[in-house]
Design goal:
Blueprint: H1 24-34, H2 39-55, H3 66-78, H4 84-101, H5 126-134, H6 141-151, H7 155-159, E1 166-167, E2 172-175, E3 184-187, H8 193-212, H9 224-227, E4 242-248, E5 257-261, H10 264-277, H11 287-299, H12 304-311, H13 316-319
Helix pairs in contact: 1-2, 2-4, 3-4, 5-10, 6-11
């Protein structure tokens, strides 16, 4: 039996005879959506709450407290050997449950915490990036990868780009609802302008065809779909890199098939294959282009605060990790062996 169905029902009261109360995890999902959490965060939080409930023998979380949370978190660190970020994610999910559903504050927790390893980012050299791009499939995949390196965007930020967020006049792109639900501006590489314009022409042609076939609708954030009923079919709201297929919104209930953005796994697989074909031995993923963007900017003399703003980091200390991989760091020092 799913743990949500085992006495885990209403967050405020037990169900009385003859009444059907919403299940706990449904309440969590509803609350997350009300607060505009992303679909990925919703899936992650619900998954951790399921594990938390199963760990305690399907007991209702209302009947659990601080010591029970500590035992679960310690179990993750000592027996599951999860990373610190994974343990923090589990804790965030549990705190959300008690704070937003039960309106209850947990006491100070004294669980065994997973050790946060110090890892340096994978940074590609200019020649490696050129070689990798040369082995990519044609646009839009190659265009997206070049945007990742040219703007420092995260892979999902690139996939979610909408037509209206590209400003050719000011040579900039607006990244909407980035990490922490923050917007920011990034530069639009001049070398990509012509190909981006061509990509938008292709998107517009496909969109017109969708509209002629009775579709052309796209998912809109928040309450925009209600406030502006016609906006979903406007070209400016369409994704710059749309999927080739129509699909149902996994969180929607209207049954409307829409054209979502290109799935990020398509890009991730293409990058891994291209790296292998180019003979790059580093562990390369889409995020390596963001790391390379930041590192190469700092190497060219850009101010670290500027790089922090472009990356959308809340604290400059997060950006400072790139100072450890600059050319004037380890590779900028002459080894004493070479002086013999």
């Amino acid at each position: 039996m799913h743990p949500a169905g085992h006495s885990v029902t209403n967050a405020s009261a037990r169900p009385s005879a003859g009444t059907r109360q919403p299940r706990l995890l449904d309440l969590v999902r509803t609350r997350l959506r009300t607060l505009h959490y992303s679909k990925r965060t919703e899936e992650s939080y619900v998954g951790w709450l399921v594990r938390f409930i199963r760990f305690h023998g399907l007991k209702h979380p209302r009947d659990l407290g601080g010591p029970d949370v500590e035992r679960f978190l310690s179990h993750l660190a000592t027996e599951r050997h999860v990373a610190a970020s994974t343990q923090n994610q589990a804790l965030a999910a549990i705190l959300f449950l008690y704070t937003h559903i039960f309106d209850k504050e947990l006491p100070a927790l004294n669980a065994v915490r997973a050790k946060r390893p110090q890892r340096l980012p994978v940074v590609l050299g200019a020649s490696e990036i050129r070689d990798l791009i040369a082995h990519l499939p044609p646009d839009p995949v190659a265009l997206m990868v070049e945007l990742l390196y040219g703007t420092g965007m995260r892979v999902l930020e690139c996939c979610r780009l909408r037509v209206k967020d590209i400003d050719f006049d000011r040579n900039q792109i607006t990244v909407r609802e980035g990490k922490g639900d923050k917007d920011r501006m990034v530069p639009l590489p001049a070398s990509l302008v012509a190909r981006l314009r061509e990509q938008l022409r292709r998107v517009e042609n496909h969109h017109r065809e969708d509209v002629r076939n009775g579709g052309g609708s796209v998912w809109l954030p928040g309450a925009l779909a209600v406030k502006y009923p016609q906006a979903a079919t406007e070209f400016r709201w369409q994704y710059v890199f749309p999927s080739s297929r129509l699909s149902l919104d996994p969180r929607g209930s209207d049954g409307v098939r829409r054209r979502h953005h290109l799935d990020e796994t398509t890009l991730q697989k293409a990058v891994r294959r291209a790296a292998n074909r180019a003979g790059i031995t580093k562990k390369v993923g889409c995020h390596a282009f963001r790391h390379s963007f930041a590192t190469h900017l700092l190497e060219s003399g850009a101010d670290i605060r500027t790089v922090q703003t472009l990356l959308g980091h809340a604290d400059v200390s997060t950006t400072q990790i790139y100072t450890h991989v600059l050319r004037r760091g380890a590779c900028g020092v002459v080894s004493p062996l070479d002086r013999l």
